[in-house]
Amino acid sequence: MKSTQGWRMGTKETPMLPKTRQRSNLKKPTWIIVLVSLVSLFLICAYVYPPQQFAACYVFSYHGCEALQNWLPPALFRGLTDDEFASRVVIRDILNSPPIISLNPKIAFLFLTPGALPFEKLWDKFFQGNEGRFSVYVHASKDKPVHFSRYFINREIRSDTVEWGKISMVDAERRLLANALKDLDNQHFVLLSDSCIPLRSFDFVYNYLMYTNVSFVDCFEDPGPHGSGRYIKYMLPEVEKKDFRKGAQWFTMKRQHAIIIMADSLYFRKFREYCKPGMEGGRNCYSDEHYLPTFFHMLDPTGISNWSVTHVDWSEMKWHPKSYRAQDITMELMRNITSIAENMHVTSDKKRQVKITPCLWNGNERSCYLFARKFLPETLNKLLASVVVKQVVPYRIGCSRRWLLFSSARANPESQASLKPGKVKKWPSVTSMANFSLV
Ligand SMILES: *[C@@H]1O[C@H](CO)[C@@H](O)[C@H](O)[C@H]1NC(C)=O
Ligand SMILES: *[C@@H]1O[C@H](CO)[C@@H](O)[C@H](O)[C@H]1NC(C)=O
Ligand SMILES: *[C@@H]1O[C@H](CO)[C@@H](O)[C@H](O)[C@H]1NC(C)=O
Ligand SMILES: *[C@@H]1O[C@H](CO)[C@@H](O)[C@H](O)[C@H]1NC(C)=O
């Protein structure tokens, strides 16, 4: 496509104004007026017509347009390819259509696991009494799990091998979403792993997710080696480096967002081909951390929260987040986690910039987390006990120590060394579900 070439050239070549033929028979002031009007016309055409409609420019002069493309900032002038144009039209249309109204809206819980689900009993307690308001889907990529809870029996979908950091992880997420979308009552979709636990009562989670106006997809710009450093130029022209984003894999999303992921093959293809471990120059990229954050940043940036409602503790500054053992499980820990009301992102470059933002739920500050992960199976009994004891206020739980929150996986552990966790503000612990009504 010509416009694409123009854009590529535009990044390298010197600015150049359109050449205008001299007309010797015109007097000087008229000549200037003509020139100024011509330039203005091109400029107007550039701004009024979206970049994909270059035909409009050709009406005036093909060469003039090309020169102008080189002269104006490249991003403004890059023409969309046919595929991008088609993709954006479809996605815009889906986002603008009114959501399907269901008389029996449900939340779909999507479990991505290699095999067994060690916290099935805990989830069983969580789901109990809420039949008809949720559905469960299990993608077991290695072994077929033996189930302990009736809510999980026969809920496995057809699955395939999942390799850490590879595109097969995103394939599995898409497979789960596709299966859950078949049920029109599913209005919100939650991705969970085998090490995830619920932090709140079902009602709390249901209201938090069902009545939110955004999807909880983690997304931030990390100019460092573990962020944009993973970008490779072969993603051009569809994905530019400036749009490349990072975020933890564990999302919750609205139905419309799940549908646009199903509708997308263009951007997904780019990530499948060019965001994987072991690329040229020893570059590693992990699609599960970049595809969705980048996709939403490009196509619906205001439709996502930019943080994940699944808590994880990076305070140990290792390559993997802290795994909770049985002795770590205390009411205080749970209370600490649930009281956090600000999320934190840290860049992986030398500056190690810390960005703290309040967790806003429909514009109001709320506690950030509904789920938490990296709990070892040995914690089950303690977790079950805390639920049973606190049946009236099911999950009045929280955690502590100086919290270093870092919502994105596989970050450079060193990059967190300069954090000042004391700055993270706490949301007052919930004393009653009635006082935390989200409806
Ligand atoms: C998320 O970040 C984008 C910028 O990337 C911003 O436009 C959007 O408003 C943010 N979402 C919320 C809920 O603040
Ligand atoms: C969500 O609600 C907040 C508060 O009313 C508002 O500022 C924000 O723009 C809304 N976002 C969307 C995507 O509707
Ligand atoms: C909970 O938070 C408090 C205050 O930040 C801290 O002193 C305490 O150690 C934390 N407890 C646990 C178990 O993390
Ligand atoms: C809600 O909180 C207020 C104080 O903020 C308290 O007086 C009231 O008793 C609480 N209600 C319930 C049902 O716990």
TrEMBL record:
Q: Where are the transmembrane segments?
A: 31-49
A molecular function GO annotation: glycosyltransferase activity
Alphabetic keyword roster: Glycoprotein, Glycosyltransferase, Membrane, Transferase, Transmembrane, Transmembrane helix
Membrane topology category: Single-pass type II membrane protein
Task: Return the InterPro entries for the record.
Answer: BC10-like, Glyco_trans_14
**Superkingdom per UniProt:** Eukaryota
- Say where the protein is mainly found: membrane
> What name does the UniProt record give this protein?
Core-2/I-branching beta-1
Q: Which organism is it from?
A: Perilla frutescens var. hirtella
